[in-house]
Amino acid sequence: MQKETGEKFGLLLGLAGVICFSLTLPSTSIAVEYFGTTVVGLGRTVVAAILVAVVLIIRKEKLPSLQQFKSLFIVAFGVVLGFPLLTSWAMESLPVSHGAVELALLPLATAGFAMFRGGEIPSLKFWISSVIGSLAVIIYALHLGFGGLQFADLALLASVLILGLSYAEGGRLAKELGSWQVIAWAIMIGAPFFIIPVGLNVTTEMFYAPIHAWVSFIYLAVVSQFLAYVAWYSGMAMGGIARVSQIQYLQPFLMILFATVFLDESITFFTFVIALIVVFSVILGKNAPVSKKRSLLEKN
Q1: What DSSP string describes 45-105?
Q2: Lowest mean pLDDT: which of 54-63, 96-105, 158-167, 226-235?
């Protein structure tokens, strides 16, 4: 009973994280127009590092072990470098709805890496639900006529693979290091390398950006880069990496909803139909059994 309660709470935390992440692309689309790719993509980590440093000092957190630092570099490569930078660049030329559809493939990438990095073996039922969800978002993309791939599309697809690995690694590491500690230390690892490139791209005009641009950037730094990951990694640690990753199928439609509210992008009845199919796949996958095995790192 206690285990079941923990798994349900993990799913709720994962949902909270997904809702927060769903505002990331809309916020990026707004902020990048005024601050540019480098400042938005890397600057959010520099700002988040100030908050994280204060928390780590107050709590007197001890340094991770050498083995944990190796995993943290994998997390940092994805969540504080690869994904923010690639999506910031892509959002300069793509609408949020376009990016949302492609990022919907993230649960499959996360689950795949989870088998190797997190020691989980999803069942056939889980994979069937994943295929249903993936086919739904692919049909959605074809219906909207997104057609051939652009360089921005390739950047988004690369970000999916990079972030999927980071999610799986972060979820595994959260069980021994702590959920918020994973993203906190990942931020502290990346921030020192970003100060110079961010500083070189800051201009005086940026300080006169409108309030909605600053709110978007602050949201990216405080929530998207830190607080959302605290909820997300906590959820994966408690509910299982592969199972909680299924909730991400809701993310593209939440993104589209927020894009409609904040960016005046259109939303159609067909979107809601696809959303219902995706929600069904989430429910199906949530109840699918997931077995455990020793990870490749443990065997080595």
Answers
A1: HHHHHHHHHHHHHHHTPPPPPHHHHHHHHHHHIIIIIIHHHHHHHHTTTS-HHHHHHHHTT
A2: 96-105
- Helix ranges, the chain (H): 2-21, 24-35, 37-59, 66-76, 83-90, 96-103, 106-117, 124-143, 151-177, 179-201, 211-219, 228-239, 241-245, 251-263, 269-286, 296-299
Residue with tokens 């927060």: 20
Amino acid at 224: S
- The pLDDT tens digits of the residues spanning 140-191 come to 766 665 555 567 778 888 998 899 889 888 878 887 888 789 999 999 999 9
**pLDDT grade for 201, boundaries at 50, 70 and 90:** very high
Residues paired with residue 120 on neighbouring β-strands, in sequence order: 292
Give the dihedral sign, CA 39/41/46/48: positive
> Mind listing the pLDDT tens digit for each residue in 62-72?
899 999 999 99
C-alpha distances in Å from residue 9, one per residue of 42, 216, 230, 245: 32, 29, 14, 14
145 CB-contact burial (10 Å; exposed 0-12 / middle 13-18 / buried 19+):
exposed
Q: Which two tokens stand for residue 257?
A: 């909803």
Reported as a single tens digit per residue, the pLDDT across 10-39 is 889 999 999 999 999 999 999 999 999 999
Residues 6+ apart with CB under 8 A from 107: 130, 133, 245, 246, 248, 249
Residues 220-232 have a mean pLDDT of 92
CA angle 93, 107, 89 (to 5 degrees): 20
pLDDT at residue 178 in the model: 83
Task: Give the C-alpha separation, 102 to 248, whole Å.
Answer: 12
